[in-house]
Automatic annotation (TrEMBL):
Protein name: Sulfite oxidase-like oxidoreductase
GO BP terms in the entry: sulfur compound metabolic process
Source organism phylogeny: Bacteria, Thermotogati, Deinococcota, Deinococci, Thermales
Gene3D superfamilies (alphabetical): 2.60.40.650, Oxidoreductase, molybdopterin-binding domain
Signal peptide feature range: 1-27
Organism: Thermus oshimai JL-2
Amino acid sequence: MEKLNRRTTLKLMGLGAAALAMGRGLAQQAPTADQLVKGKNAKLIVLSQRPVVLETPYDLLVSQPERTPKEILYIRNNVDLAGYNTVEGASLEGWSIEVGGLLDKPFTLEAKELLNLPQSEVTMVLQCSGNGRSLYQPRTSGNPWGRGGVGNVTFRGVKLKDLLAAKGAKPTEKALFITAHASRQGGAAEFVRSVPIQALENALLALSMNGEPLPAVHGGPVRLVFPGFFGVNNVKWVQKIEFAEAENTTAEQMPRYRVPAIPNTHLPFLPQEPGGRYTYTFATSRPNWLVNVNSFIFAPLEGQTVEGPYVRVEGVAFNDGIVPIVSVELSADGGRTWFKAELEKTERSFGWIRWRRTLYLRSGAHEIMARAWDAAGRSQPLDGNLAWNERGYEWNGVMRVRFTVA
């Protein structure tokens, strides 16, 4: 009996060790994007499991140059809403939105009422303000985004100003900001963002994206969208909208999503010593609001070998949509000489503008740079690291692509 017990004990110990090793192996196999979010492409890069943060691989992004499909669109969620990690639409039934604050006639509406109001549509660049963060040196804090935290999408819904008109409501003269609150159902963490009252002109209560019901993981059933603003300001799962005299003071407004700045100056940022720390206050920093001017090279791709000597270079450019993109320039000699690309269109746009140019390049290794200019005279710095900030926001240095001409 003693031998049997010893043998059994040793066997159980062996099974336990095997199970432990197997458990460790399973733990090391991180879930893929499609396992985290139903309907997402498995190739998306998982930067965070909770809350979900997924980056679009650059080759997937450039494969869809017109509109970025929901299956490959990046995700940057600051909170997880239980049951909403899917690209399928969420039901409007039972969803209500409170609109108040400095409003002469506060009201609450059932979201399904929006279907009966005039619908508007906008194509816009949706971009995380941390997109390109990994290009800053030294490394900054936050998810290590490459260039895949961006997409070009079409939202459709009801303009906030049209909703106010339908309800006979107007913001008071003291209202200087629009503050949006995300739903906290299921015990979700608080998420609140404020933008200037001027954003009311184009603000949209989005119900659909790319002609389909707004995906739950991207803010469905209703997302408050501000074209021309960085993604963080486009509040998902919106359930409360306030008109206010000042920015809200929650963590996502202060100290997060801000860059060093001197108020009441024309400087886009206050240069910060790379690797240094900064004290963020409302007086010494500005929020990540308007998208800065930027351009991406979609072809050739980094490391490619292409046929020459005539090489087609193409990509996209975008800004905040306040003024049009007027030029995209290319350089193949380190910035000594520049060639203008042909723009697809030259009018104002919240979406990205496609551009192209054929260059004569001899066989061998090459590096192409691209920079965009807009009608306000804004462009991209040759050295994006000039805007280094400890959280790695708003990278817009010129894009450089190295490739070989056969």
